[in-house]
Amino acid sequence: MSDKSNKPTKLKARLPRGLADRGPAEIAATRQMVEAIRLVFERYGFEPVETPTIEYTDALGKFLPDQDRPNEGVFSFQDDDEQWLSLRYDLTAPLARYVAENFQNLALPYRSYRFGWVFRNEKPGPGRFRQFMQFDADTVGAPSMAADAEMCMLAADTMEALGIPRGSYLVKVNNRKVLDGAMDTLQIPAEKRLTTMRAVDKLDRLGIDGVKMLLGRGRKDESGDFTKGAELTDPQIAGIVDAISGVPKATGGTTAGDQELSEIAALVNAAGYSDRVRIDKTVVRGLEYYTGPVYEVELTFEIKDEKGRPVRFGSVGGGGRYDGLVSRFRGSQRSAG
User: Fold this and answer.
1) Model-level pTM?
2) Which end of the chain is more exposed for a tag (fewer CB within 10 A), N or C?
3) Do 18-140 and 144-337 fold alike per CATH?
């Protein structure tokens, strides 16, 4: 009888889910895109800065104090002195740490851009990867809505520099204060607000019926996975739907957010961007740290998939004002990015 116990085990070559290999053509295309974006950002006066791929988990603001491993949404591990570290999930939170650490040497308003890989510990799907590249621009220490209007115009110019013709994209702008006002009026508890915002943020992908499910008990996706909802009451769900539809009764009239949106609209219109930048009350953005204007860049044209069915790209970029992010490390600093 032969003994096979010493026979070497053959490893199976396999790529982890949500990740992708990149060949010469894709690498060359990425270089061209990065260079085109860099030229636009520097023309607007933004300067480059780099931050590391790994940060302390608490600096990212993405940790779970009630669990042993703070890895919801991020890839985390402990170093030899038992400090939790995480792969960055965006480029904004690391910038806040950088600004706070180097504040005495920065002239305000501080305007910088960064690009690099970011990582999400989330379920991958079509067009949703666990590793992808971001390109960010941020202004720190700018209380005026002019900084937010500038970001919207920067986004529009970037699209055209990348070869997206005018009319094939749209920069949509809303204000987090509008939805906050609606949640105040509807008496939505604090512990349900982030789930509410993330539900609304999926409007473009899931439609109003999918959002209603996530505002209620929850939703089961095509794979059978169940996402727990915000568990709002029926009147609260109706009020949120009114708010994202622009119905005034949901917010009780004009809010501070409405006034800021009017200021942004006046600035972009005066600069000749009214056909590219528009107010849209359905834009929310699911990240917790936004405090004012939020914006998304959406491609409006359709392509065909491999079966000839029409497909829309939807949102390809976005951002917003986050006045509270740097203040976690030091006093109040207002930022738009």
Assistant:
1) 0.81
2) N
3) yes
